[in-house]
Amino acid sequence: MTDKFWGPDFDELERTDPEIADVVLSELDRQRAGLQLIASENLTSPAVLAALGSTLSNKYAEGYPGHRYYGGCAEVDRAENLAVERGKALFGAEHVNVQSHSGASANLAVYAAFAQPGDPILAMSLPHGGHLTHGARVNFSGKWFSPIPYHVDKKTELIDYDEVRDLALTHRPRIIVAGATAYPRLIDFAAFRKIADEVDAILWVDAAHFIGLVAGKAIPSPVPYADVVSATTHKVLRGPRGGMIICRGEHAKAIDKAVFPFSQGGPLMHSVAGKAVAFKEASTPAFQAYASAVTANAAALSKALEAEGMRAVSGGTDTHLALIDLRGLDPAVSGADAERRCDLARITLNKNAIPYDPAPPMVASGIRVGSAALTTQGFDEADMGRVASLIARAVSADPSTATGERELAAVVDDVTQLVATKPAYPRMAGEGPQ
Ligand SMILES: *Cc1c(COP(=O)(O)O)cnc(C)c1O
Known about the structure:
This protein has about 425 residues and is α/β, with parallel strands linked by helices. The chain has helices at about 10-15, 20-35, 45-50, 75-90, 105-115, 140-145, 160-170, 190-200, 210-215, 250-265, 270-280, 285-305, 335-345, 370-375, 380-395, 400-420; strands at about 35, 65, 65-70, 95, 120-125, 145-150, 175-180, 200-205, 230, 245, 310, 320-325, 345-350, 350, 365-370. It has a 7-stranded mixed β-sheet with strand order 4-10-9-8-7-5-6, with helices on both faces. α1 packs across α2, α4 runs parallel beside α11 and α15 (about 380-395) packs antiparallel against α16. It starts with 9 loop residues before the first helix and ends in a 13-residue tail after the last helix.
């Protein structure tokens, strides 16, 4: 067996490039020193990081296992076959493509497989939680296709399935997209399937955010309902940064061709290997326990924030994320202010538009919080109550006043104490929080 010279080697990095070595260690410190609540982030495992830091990064492997455009692919073929087989087993899928470089690249391939430029695409409105790739004007999806947005109901803040059906009947979309980046509730895949059948559209579920909850059996799977499911592997699923596509057997060829050669060149084989590792980890009872803890923690956090005077959009969450409406706070705090204040207190989250938001997107009336990373660290529902109270204190501390500044410093101390009880990456090298 070859020795393990390739392993992630900080000493070598420090000798060659001390500046980047410092970035890597400082970022590890940052992740450990604060509360990571960005709903699309997680802390991937040391095993996945080892695959990512390997010489698989060197290998060109355009094509698919057994049919490559380059020699020397026997070893990387094994990695991709393992990723595909594990992915199929994990999701009960007929076909899986693991080559997409990212969620957005996976989505580009889905459009390429099923639509022509100019085709109408029915997808969730961006300000109501849809993703850039669901028809934003600044994105290829909005430039090359004709997006028709559907919305959430103003009262319930749940997807308005009647509107989805009405729009589908009127516009006859080629593709109907279910899935979002800031929607806290379960999506009724059966309802979407019925509408898609009525108008003979492709049903595409963009499960980028919640595929990890599906893998962990914490929420229902879209796979039996959808023609195609796209996803990322780095959000709740906790794998390497990357994308994947799951589809029915009848669409396998179209999807594979749309990924390569239509929209990508050589796959990132170190990332493909990392995906195989992540699928293996996600198929364990431990990951199922993790996924249900993620939803329990998000529910606890959402409830505790409500107790602090911040309203949860739609009244709560069924997933890993909650969307919080700050408009009830007095004095008023915008989403942008809340994000900045929390950042000063080492609480990392993002401002977010709420449905029918009166504020412009760069200001926003809400914040989005996710429980995936803290749950990886071992945080439980009682901890989420503490996290909510720290968020509430940070959000209402105005840093332009002396009292606000003192309060933010006090929150930093309390955050430091809390993360020390359940640190991120407890076994890795580094300085640790100051
Ligand atoms: C995150 C996300 C994507 C894009 O993933 P990237 O890896 O950032 O390109 C696509 N769709 C949805 C719904 C997402 O939440």
